[in-house]
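Aim 2 progress update. The chain analyzed this quarter is reproduced below.
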Amino acid sequence: MLGFLLALLLPARLAAPAPVPAVVAQAPTVSFVAPGVWQGDYELLTADGPIAVHVVAIEPHRDDLHLAAVLATDRLTSPGETVESMAKRTGAVAGINGDYFDIDATDQPTNVLVRNGRMLRSPRQRYALAIGSDGTPRFTEFAFDGSLQIGTTTVALDGVNE
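Predicted C-alpha cells:
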C-alpha cells in the first residue's frame, strides 16, 4: 500500500512538455520525511543544461498534517530569516519558500499573502498557490480591487501593504 501511495504522490521520473527542454537523463531520489510527508529531489540533465527540482508531497486530508504561511520573524517587513530557521522556529517538518521577496530591503513577500483568512499583502496580477478552507490546493491568477470608506468619502485603493 505504501508503494502505491508514494507513486500517487511523487512520480518516479519527471517529464515536462515544451517549452521545458528535453530531459536527457535524470537521477530522482524520493525520501521519507515524516508520516504522510515525502521529499522528491529530481536532478535533471536537459538538452539546455542541468535543472534541479525539489518537491514536498503530503498525503491529502490527513488530520495530523496542516499547511501554514509563516512570515520571516513573524512580521511582514523584517530583517529576513531563512526557510530553515522558520521551519525550526515553528516546529515544521518541511518548509518551502512560497514567494519571491524584496531581498536586501524590506524582505516582504512580493505577491499576495493571505494567512488565516486575512489578506496581509494584495496580489500583483500574478499566479499564486491558494489553499482553500477545505485544504484543496489550486494555482490561480489573483487580482486586487479595493476601496476605503471613511464616513461618506470613498477612496480607491491600488494595494494593501505595498
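The first strand starts at residue 23 and ends at 34. Residues 1-61 form one domain. These observations will guide the mutagenesis experiments scheduled for the next reporting period.
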